[in-house]
Structures are given as structure tokens and as C-alpha cells.
Amino acid sequence: MRKIISFMHMSLDGFVAGPAGEMDWIKVDEEIFDYVGKRISKGDTALYGRVTYQMMESYWPTAADKPTATRHDIEHSKWYSNVQKVVLSKTMKDENLTNTRIISDNISDRINEIKQEEGTDILLFGSPTATHTLIQLNLIDGYWLFVNPIILGRGIPLFADIKDKIKLTLLNSRQFTSGVTELNYIAER
């Protein structure tokens, strides 16, 4: 069975965005891009909430075509164009969307069907609202967290309204020269 792995940048105090959704505090450099690129290149399915999907869709399909495109832009744009995308949204329709499925109801059943399909891990990128929903439904199998060396004090928390304990096992960790620490956990079931 495929696993859903939540990929998220967060502050030391557990926020994934500032109060207005700002993410300008996230540290990303070539070292992190290279590391993340190797991991996600093995993935064949990306899971997003509507807001994150629309943000990604507005940039990645054409990022490689820009004259200032970096190696990362070119690699990620190619990956994004080929990967299957799943979007949790009550308002979007999947008409004319390439490689994209919209899930608007029966989330648990629909996600479990996708987890049964052939393929690699399903990577959940950002998307705090979708992440909160999937945590509540006990559908996230692992957390790939990039803890940034900043305390925001307020914002959108990664873990909100948790009803039951979620026991995790640390698979590995890594310190980047920027001060970001990667923590890779798997949920104990």
C-alpha cells in the first residue's frame, strides 16, 4: 500500500505560515533544493489543497521556459508536468485538468482508493488545511519536516485540533548549512 508523506516547512514553534499565510521566512537554498529534488523525483503522485495547487499551477508548468530558469526550476517543472496530481477542494472541478484529480467528498474513501493503486509514496506538499483534514482522518503515514530556525509566535499551526495522539518514529534527520533541520518521521500504526 502506498503511503502519504506530508512534506512541510515549519517554524521552530510549529507554524507552517504566518497569520496571513506568509511564507517569506522559509529558508530554501541549492543544498535543500538538491536534497528535496532527489527525494521527490522518485514520487509519482503529489497531493495538494486547492490554494497550494493553484499557487503551484500558476508557476511550475512554465517555470522551465523562463530565460532565468535555474537547474532546480527546470527539473521541478519537468517533474510537476509528469506527476499525477490530487487536489482536495470543494469548489474546483476537474474538467480539462491534465494529470489532475479533484476530491471534493468522501475524502477518506477516495484517498484510500488512491493508496491502493500502483505507484510510489503520495507526497502532500504544504497545504495546511488539507493536512489538517488528513490528520483528522488518520490518513498521513509520515511527516517530512523542514524546521526553520525562526520562532514566529503566531500563524497557521501544522498540528491543530488533534483529537488522538499520533506516535511517530524518527527515521532520520539532517542539518543543512542554512540552519534548517530536516526530520523524517513515520507514523506508528
TrEMBL record:
Residue span(s) of domain Bacterial bifunctional deaminase-reductase C-terminal: 2-180
Superkingdom assignment: Bacteria
Pfam families: RibD_C
One GO-annotated biological process of the protein: riboflavin biosynthetic process
One MF annotation (Gene Ontology) recorded for this entry: 5-amino-6-(5-phosphoribosylamino)uracil reductase activity
UniProt feature coiled coil, ranges: none
Protein name: Dihydrofolate reductase
Source organism (scientific name): Arcticibacter tournemirensis
